[in-house]
């Protein structure tokens, strides 16, 4: 997916945890951060406190949606997904992408991965891997600052 392309529809979830959201609900008022993670991904779990901090610190300014992307058959156990989500305080909506439909729509192959869309629903930043939380924070802040100036 290229920068400035529109957010795809949030279709193909095998299940939603912590509530469900639609593209229409996410676009218009505030930017959105999608974070891809997997229960078998150590780096995802290490990054979760920082993702949760974004969620809490910017709760009035930023939509945060978790996307659980399986990396193996073992990652398809919904009870295990619920357990790990609870252990890591993932309270934001979780799109369970067991058939990789949303990952395919974003052309994403990695966990952890982060997609930042502006309030119009255009992709503004993408990154994958365990490092770079400072860069993600800068990009999120840049998109949030545009909203405040608008």
Query: What is the chain-wise order of helices and strands?
Result: EHEHEHEHEEH
Q: What helical percentage do the residues reach?
A: 25-40%
Number of helices: 5
Question: Describe the biggest sheet?
Answer: 6 strands, mixed
Radius of gyration, in Å, reads: 14 Å
What's this model, at a glance?
With 150 residues, the protein is α/β, with parallel strands linked by helices. The protein is built from five helices and six strands.
Question: Can you walk me through this structure?
Answer:
The protein has helices at 23-26, 42-57, 78-87, 101-105, 133-149, and strands spanning 15-17, 32-37, 63-68, 94-96, 113-117, 123-128. The protein has 150 residues and is an alpha/beta fold. Strands 1-4-3-2-5-6 form a six-stranded mixed β-sheet, with helices on one face. The radius of gyration is 14 Å and the shape is globular. This is Thiol-disulfide isomerase/thioredoxin. Residues 1-145 form the Thioredoxin domain. One of its GO terms (molecular function) is isomerase activity.
Task: Give the topology, please.
Layout: E1 15-17, H1 23-26, E2 32-37, H2 42-57, E3 63-68, H3 78-87, E4 94-96, H4 101-105, E5 113-117, E6 123-128, H5 133-149
Parallel strand pairs: 2-3, 3-4
Antiparallel strand pairs: 1-4, 2-5, 5-6
Pfam family, one: AhpC-TSA
InterPro entries: AhpC/TSA, Thioredoxin-like_sf, Thioredoxin_domain, Thioredoxin_ResA/DsbE_sf
Domain Thioredoxin: 1-145
What are the main properties of this structure?
150 residues; alpha/beta; six-stranded mixed sheet; 35% helix; globular; disulfide bond; Thioredoxin-like_sf; AhpC/TSA
